[in-house]
Amino acid sequence: MSENDFLKENDLLHECESIEDDDKRLKRREKNRVAAQRSRKKQTQKADKLHEEYKCLEYENCSLRKDVEKLTDELRRLTEVLKSHESICPLIHCAMNLMSVPRPEVIMPR
After folding, report:
1. By C-alpha distance, which of 70, 95, 92 is closest to 82?
2. Could you list the mean pLDDT of each consecutive 10-residue stretch along the chain, which spans 110 residues?
3. How far is CA 54 from CA 19, 50, 51, 58, 61, in A?
4. Which residues are within 8 A (CB) of 86 and not within 5 positions of it... i.e. 6 or more apart?
5. Which DSSP string corresponds to the chain?
6. By the 8 A CB rule, do 86 and 92 touch?
7. pLDDT tens profile 40-58
8. Spatial distance between the Cα atoms of 14 and 2, rounded to a whole number of angstroms
């Protein structure tokens, strides 16, 4: 085999290796591209889910604030009704009188 033939064969070998390397590189890039797409899709889904949870919590928070406001108004109204009723209620006056009088201790039988 001549030196020229050897060089040609060597060039062909390098060319084959280069093609194989290119194929491996392309496959690796494609695999990486697909993995990156999956990762981006997963991140988007996670962000969408968090956004939905946020909206639900905001709605629930608003509803609870309205409930607190209604209950606060009801407490205020009932407190006013009670105060206006205290002055005319005989039971309250009777109960206050009983509290001011010391009661004898009741001894329970064993």
Report:
1. 92
2. 62 71 89 97 98 98 98 96 88 64 54
3. 52, 6, 5, 6, 10
4. 92
5. --HHHHHHHHHHHHHHHHHHHHHHHHHHHHHHHHHHHHHHHHHHHHHHHHHHHHHHHHHHHHHHHHHHHHHHHHHHHHHHHHHHHHTT-HHHHHHHHHHHSPPPPPPPP-
6. yes
7. 999 999 999 999 999 999 9
8. 18
1 DSSP assignment: -
| Cβ neighbours for 105, distance < 8 A, ≥ 6 positions apart | none
Q: Determine contact, residues 47/55, Cβ cutoff 8 Å.
A: no
